[in-house]
Amino acid sequence: MTQNAPAAAARPREQWTGQVGFILSAIGSAVGLGNIWRFPGVAYENGGGAFLIPYLVALLTAGIPILFLDYALGHRFRGAAPTAFRRIGRSLGRFTESLGWFQVAIAFVIGLYYTAVIAWALSYFVFSFDLRWGDDPATFFQADFLQVGDPGLSLEFVPGVLIPLALVWIAAILVLAAGVAKGLQRANVIFLPVLIVAFLVLVVRALFLDGAAEGLNALFTPNWAALGDPNVWIAAYSQIFFSLSIAFGIMITYASYRRRRSNLTAPGLVVAFANSSFEILAGIGVFATLGFFAFQQGIEVSELEGLTGVGLSFITFPAIVSQMPGGPLFGCLFFGSLTLAGFTSLISVLQVVSAAFQEKFRLTPRAAAATVGSVSAVLSILLFSTTTGLLALDVTDQYANNVGIVASAVLTTILVIWVLRGGPELRYHLDAVSTFKVGRVWALLVGVLAPIVLAYMLIQRVVVLIVEGYGGLPPWYLAVFGWGTIAFLVVAAIVMSALKWRDSPDDFRAWPPFPPEGQPATRKERVR
């Protein structure tokens, strides 16, 4: 394969200080809100203990292979998503660059509403001290705290959301402005151990509650018949896919900050299994607590409502905290963990956007953080700190995640493996720098199995959204905040890829050379 000319002199690329810093930061990105509030409920509803089988299969056949794909793209082509896709695309540079900007736009949108959820968790951390939600957490959350209004676009701000939301944005901008080593890495090195310790204390406390055993039995008792349901397998792939921070630029960007001679696959395995371990730990803590709640009410765990997402975190858990001994401390641990998990994921999402702007427009980390952060903060506050914020957040999240990210993954695997025929080069790169060799099986999983499963997920979800809508909301509202989000992602990708680079990303030579010295290039490689 013909390589481009050597890179011109440029500002040295930021780097992690070492492998530990990278691993902690990657785990901090992967471990987020979904690990705590999504996995336990998904596992319970899809076969209980039996769900761990398709979950492990999905991890090994799709999650880890696509994680390695992101690592290889970012590390070999030394850039955020737009830069990496442009460089691997070569003669198709502007076209392939647009896929990178599509991923950046996804991260931008997610950052807007993800920050709002962290702000809620921060508020509830404070509320835990005096159990401010009282005897009716559902009414408190929707009517008193969020002051939820009718679908629309309101400028009636809710001070209880606006103030913590502004604080979260200030903290995130400061971390981004400090750079990779002094900002992102330092934040993860501090926050991730605190998160793990706090959550372990929470889980241990939950295990000694009355009814905890019944809760764990409800979660882990296997329903083997569920393994025959294709939807259970799709749920497993979906959970792995969304929990590993893959296919929307995060791991491409993070890998680009590793030194050239850096092991990629072994740390990737550590990150993947650490993320899954935390999910199982979250399942134990959540269902032990739900078992106590069911015991207090004299009902079965299966009769409880609000076992996933926002309802679990901000309605069910406050109700549990109000009834348990030492409730305020338990509440502080839970919402503190939720805040920390969310924040370490948030800064990784925002770094995707910041890094892309740094490279496209030759900005310093501080300038990019100020620009991206200020624009994002204003939009986030306008959209999600008002009385219509909850509805806008729910719809935007549904479409950005289930349509945007899955579409990005399908396009990435097809473009890289089949259109650009980049599989051999990326496999060679992974094997050349890593101790754990991926071999040909990796290319088959990324190029065949992953796009088939993900395309099925995408088509299935799009059909449901078109035919049934979402959440019983008016079609016009879904058109604005749902399909409007998808339209924004596409337009942003086209516009950003059309803008001129301050410094050409094409003056670049990938290392190590491919094909290796002494190995003749194939006809396709000579053409490229």
UniProtKB/TrEMBL annotation:
UniProt keywords (A-Z) are: Membrane, Transmembrane, Transmembrane helix, Transport
Q: Which PROSITE patterns match?
A: NA_NEUROTRAN_SYMP_3
Q: How does it sit in the membrane?
A: Multi-pass membrane protein
Q: Which residues cross the membrane?
A: 20-37, 49-69, 99-127, 157-177, 189-212, 232-257, 269-295, 333-357, 369-393, 399-420, 441-464, 476-499
Q: Which InterPro entries match?
A: Na/ntran_symport, SNS_sf
Tell me where it resides: Membrane
Report the principal subcellular site. membrane
Output the superkingdom of the source species. Bacteria
Task: Report what the protein is called.
Answer: Sodium-dependent transporter
